[in-house]
Amino acid sequence: MSLFFLKFKFKLLFFINNSRVKDNILNDPVITKNPFAILGGLVLLLLQRIGRTSIFFIKGFFSIFFPPLQFAKVLDQVYFIGTKSIFVITLTGAFTGMVLGLQGYYTLVKFGSEGMLGAAVALSLIREMGPVLAAIMVIGRAGSAMAAEIGIMRISEQIDALETMDIDPVRFLFSPRLVAAIISFPILTALFDVIGILGGYLTGSLLLGINSGIYFARVESSVEMHDVSGGFIKAIVFAMVVVTICCSQGYFTHTRTDGFGAKGVSLSTTSAVVISCVLVLVTDYILTSFLL
Amino acid sequence: MTQPLIQFKNVCKKFGRNVVLRNANLSIYKGEITTIIGKSGGGKSVLLKHIIGLMEPDSGQILFNGRQVSEMNKKERHKLKKKFSYMFQGTALFDYMTVLDNIALPLRETTYMRESKILDRVHNMLAQLDLHEIDNKYPSQLSGGMKKRVAMARALITEPQIVLFDEPTTGLDPIRKNAVHSMISGYQKKFEYTGVLVSHEIPDIFYISQRVAMLDNGTILFEGTTDELQRSAEPKIRQFIHGFDINIKQDELTGMGTKIDVDQSFMESMDRLQEDKLVFSIIIFYVDNMDKINETAGHIAGQTVVKNFSIQLKECLRFGDTCIRYGLNKVLLILPGTNKVQAQGFCSKLADKIKWHKHTELMPCKGLHVSISAGLAEADKLSCFDHLLSSAESQRIRLDEFCAISEAEAP
Predict the structure, then answer these.
(1) What is the mean pLDDT of chain B?
(2) Domain contains B254
(3) What is the CATH number of the domain that holds B315?
(4) What span, in angstroms and rounded, lies between the C-alpha atoms of A224 and A227?
(5) A160 to chain B: which residues are within 8 Å by CB?
(6) Pairwise CB contact (< 8 Å): B105 & A165
(7) By the CB < 8 Å criterion, does A166 face chain B?
(8) For the residues of A85-137, what is the DSSP string, one character each?
């Protein structure tokens, strides 16, 4: 047991000693000896990271509204985040719907209520699966690319170059992506939902023989405006979370302590994907509890 | 003395335990080119980044026109930043944008200029920097030297008041290196910006900078004019400059001696004059219309003229004659055992020689002539170098004007 603690302490010490921010937070030599102080230091470090990401988001969000508006750049990003994701969203949407149809049918048939399949597929897609899976697919496709692109710009001094030209890098790099994501995410989610419902129809009706009239009637009768708007709200919030995390991970690549240069960019990309996936699921839970 | 434009007062900066700047004091004056020299990794780039605000000092003050930068509010800082331009050591070009977009970016983002006007200006700048047909190429498709010039175009496109150059010539061949120096100095005269240059290129930077500051171990060891630096008795400075001198005995472009050798050569000739009564003359050659050549045919052409002229000149030299590159467009010649009349004879011989050679071919540019003039002076026992040089400069004769290109090549 004591060995475990010793190891834990050693790991923490290693982490802190490697940290560049230790000068700001943990420059007291006494702190590095006390495990509670180490823990406190880590909490402060975490708060610092949360703080800088929040400031990054707020700065980027408000820059959207300051003229001159960056229409061309937003359009570019809508193409990159939205249009180019259509294929992958269609594909995953179709298979998600199909598997929901399959699973739903065999569960419902036990209760003799396979007629409810339309409602089950549509509601689970529109309320949960659509926004979450669409967001995760976009993280994989566009989020990782954003983190890598901005990370490389950071390590090759291109972001410094922007600053020297008096161009605000947050406004220049982050704001257009944020707007584009806020536009694209709901549309991609809607596409995911529709394709998913058609996928459910494919397995439920065409394969397993539920009457197609009943399937679509159930879809229509069970889905309310409240469900659809809830799905869209989720999509918009996910858009903000995903783009903020991915862009900020790239933007702060140079402050990483666990890797520099190309290695730093790869780590930033990995953590951008992991953190945004986790945060999508966490915010999904929080939002659902409010929306229900 | 006038108030410095930018002033460092006891600026300190450290990264972790590594102290980079220790009470650095530096003054940069308006309209001058100040070069910061010093060992690699000695904090020169850090100093430059402090000027533009990419880094903040741990302690000490940075004053701009007598006002402390840290006390300025956001608006004032923006205003201040607009005056600056920075050329990065690693060029820092946007690799996902074309050359044209790279150069146009500062204008597109920070001004309300019309697109057609922006494009005009960018094309003009590209032509001036001798960059042709690369508008739609990406930085990764360019050579190192071209990237440097594109970075320079991007730095100069906004016509800034202060330009900071972080090692603009590292990794370039002698002609292009000199061309970049010629551009920095040429545009400085044209746009009247204040230049701050970080460079290792001793002695080349002496030709273009008015002031030099030497950074050693985090402090400014020396600050003053180039002549003061060369005559400094401080052992560390001598060691640094002559360290370069041992490595670079010759000017890379012309293969001649460097400005650092001037004093020594002059002293040697003076000794011989006093002891053996061996008279000597100095001739200083100028490429008169250097600015015009730079403008019409490009800076590379300008430096090629200097190079080709030097080759011709060296062929005329006798054993014991010393020739020294004295400036971007100046060559100094010390002729021992020659009086003024003989020196004039030498000049006319040289004029005849270069007249019939087509070695000075430039880029096709119809009607462009190279004009070279020479200033002569004979030394007497009492003359000091500066007086001799100014008397030579005051008695300039036109060597000759000769055709820079063969007519057949002209468009």
Answers:
(1) 79
(2) no
(3) 3.30.70.270
(4) 5
(5) 54, 88, 92
(6) yes
(7) yes
(8) GHHHHHHHHHHHHHHHHHHHHHHHGGGT-GGGHHHHHHHIIIIIIHHHHHHHH
Is some CB atom of chain B closer than 8 A to the CB atom of A29?
no
Q: Residue B408 — very low, low, confident or very high, per pLDDT cuts 50/70/90?
A: very low
In this prediction, residue B8 has a pLDDT band, given cuts at 50, 70 and 90, of confident
What confidence tens digit (pLDDT) does each residue in B276-330 have?
Answer: 777 788 888 888 777 777 777 777 777 777 777 787 777 777 777 778 887 778 8
Q: Which of B248, B280, B314 is the last residue of a domain?
A: B248
pLDDT at A240: 94
The pLDDT value recorded for residue A282 is 95
B92 shares its domain with B176? yes
Query: What is the phi/psi pair of residue B270, to 5°?
Result: -65, -40
Length of chain B: 411
Do residue B40 and residue B175 come from a single domain?
A: yes
Domain final position from B186, B216, B248: B248
> pLDDT tier at A19 (50, 70, 90 boundaries)?
very low
Tokens for A57, please give them.
């988001």
pLDDT value for A136: 94
User: What is the reported pLDDT for B243?
Assistant: 65
Strand pairing report for B162-166 and B194-198: parallel
Q: Does A107 touch chain B (CB under 8 A)?
A: no
How many domains is chain B partitioned into structurally? 2
Bigger pLDDT: B365 or B233? B233
In the block, tokens 């704001």 appear at A175
A153 contacts B84? CB cut-off 8 A: no
Is A220's Cβ below 8 Å from some Cβ in B?
A: no
Q: Indicate yes or no: CB of A160 within 8 angstroms of CB of B78.
A: no
Size of interface A-B (CB pairs under 8 A): 48
Give the C-alpha separation, A155 to A174, whole Å.
Answer: 17
CA-CA distances (angstroms) from residue A24 to A16, A135, A161, A264, B13?
12, 36, 26, 21, 15
On whether both B263 and B240 belong to a single domain, the answer is no
Contact check, Cβ <8 Å, A23/B93: no
| Closest Cβ–Cβ partner in B16, B53, B110 for A165 | B110
**pLDDT tier, A7 (very low <50, low <70, confident <90, very high otherwise):** low
Residues from chain A contacting residue B88 (CB–CB below 8 Å): 157, 160-161
Q: Does B95 touch chain A (CB under 8 A)?
A: yes
Shared domain for B278 and B226, answered yes or no, is: no
Q: Does residue B410 lie in a domain region?
A: no
The answer to the question of residue B1 being in a domain is no
Q: Clarify whether residues B219 and B331 are in a common domain.
A: no
Helix A2-18, helix A35-63: angle, nearest 10: 40
Say if residues A212 and A107 touch (Cβ distance below 8 Å): no
pLDDT tens digit sequence for A88-146: 999 999 999 999 999 989 888 888 888 888 888 899 999 989 999 999 999 999 999 99
Measured CA to CA, the distance from residue B214 to residue B225 in angstroms comes to 11
Flag whether residue B105 sits within 8 Å of chain A, measured between CB atoms.
yes
Closest partner residue to A157 (CB to CB) among B92, B96, B158 is B92
Our separate counts of H helices and E strands in chain B read: 14, 15
Domain that holds residue B329: 259-403
Residue B350 or A57, more confident: A57
Residues in a beta bridge with B195:
B33, B163
What is the structure's pLDDT at B333?
Answer: 82
Q: Which amino acid is at A93?
A: G
Span A173-183, average pLDDT: 93
Same domain, yes or no, for B179 and B240? yes
